[in-house]
Design a protein that fits this description.
The chain is mainly alpha-helical. The protein has a single domain, classed as Tetratricopeptide repeat domain (Serine Threonine Protein Phosphatase 5, Tetratricopeptide repeat, Alpha Horseshoe), CATH 1.25.40. It is elongated.
């Protein structure tokens, strides 16, 4: 499984993709909505709006109206996004025996999740690669394949290739979102996928994973994901603003984003200062 949990000091964000699932909520591979349940996510609820910041990655959407679906753990639960918008039923397994005889990118995605949960990382990596590449691939398959490459989950670690797949997933989700909006299709699942892809691309820039380290660019991506309502991105953006990492130090705005993240379940231990009147 991915690296064991690390205890973060107060105010230090815990980065997704580096922690084990909590024992109280084991992931279930039966649904595409549990794709990310083997990682640590906070519930998604509500959103927050701040003025645009120069240099922020420009995506063709208004990032303040999405509402992600929640699985049984309260985890952010994106569904796979095909190359073109389809009916929700197309995200399901292609047949009852799909996990033993996979045929579609979604089948391979679900099989990869099942292998990952069972700690068969090499098998899961092969399935994620197939999900990312078969018939133009699916967005969540690209995300999972990118994360597998970045962290070396069952495949030789290759951060540069991982970054390319994460970025491709984000770009594909933007395209799918615009197509879905034009066709009056429910876009909530696509937005859920998009926010995670944006967050992970931001992590790559902020940490120098597969791309030249650029904390300023990483913070810009965190800001986009934070506006979309992602609590981990809100926490990371707040941390950067509090300490001036990749941006100008601004404790008042940091407090705003910390409060937004706390509202969604992020711990506020060590953050009593964010409630002081001068930071309101």
């Amino acid at each position: 499984m991915p690296n064991p949990p690390r205890q973060a000091p107060p105010n230090q964000p815990v980065f997704r993709g580096e922690v084990q699932p909590q024992a109280s909520g084991l992931p279930r591979p039966a649904s595409s909505n549990s794709v990310y349940s083997s990682y640590s996510y906070y519930p998604y609820e509500g959103n927050i709006s701040t003025p645009p910041t120069p240099g922020t990655p420009q995506f063709a959407l208004q990032p303040s109206t999405s509402q992600a679906s929640l699985n049984s753990r309260g985890a952010l639960s994106p569904s796979p996004t095909p190359a073109h918008p389809r009916d929700p039923d197309s995200y399901e397994l292609s047949s009852p025996d799909a996990l033993t005889n996979p045929r579609t990118p979604q089948d391979y995605l679900q099989l990869g999740i099942a292998h990952h949960i069972a700690n068969r990382l090499e098998d899961s990596a092969k399935c994620f690669e197939k999900s990312a590449t078969l018939d133009q691939g699916c967005g969540v398959g690209m995300l999972m394949w990118g994360l597998a490459l970045r962290h070396g989950w069952g495949v030789p670690q290759n951060e540069a290739r991982g970054f390319k797949w994460l970025r491709k997933a984000a770009e594909g989700a933007v395209s799918d979102l615009e197509s879905a909006k034009a066709g009056m299709v429910d876009t909530s699942a696509i937005k859920s996928e998009l926010v995670i892809a944006i967050y992970e691309v931001g992590q790559s820039f902020f940490r120098g994973w597969g791309v030249e380290k650029d904390k300023k660019m990483g913070v810009n991506y965190f800001r986009v994901a934070a506006r979309l309502g992602d609590p981990d991105a809100q926490q990371n953006l707040a941390f950067a603003l509090e300490h001036g990492k990749g941006c100008k130090k601004d404790r008042k705005e940091a407090a705003l984003w910390y409060r937004a993240a706390v509202k969604q379940g992020v711990s506020d231990i060590g953050l009593a200062w964010i409630y002081k009147e001068k930071f309101q």
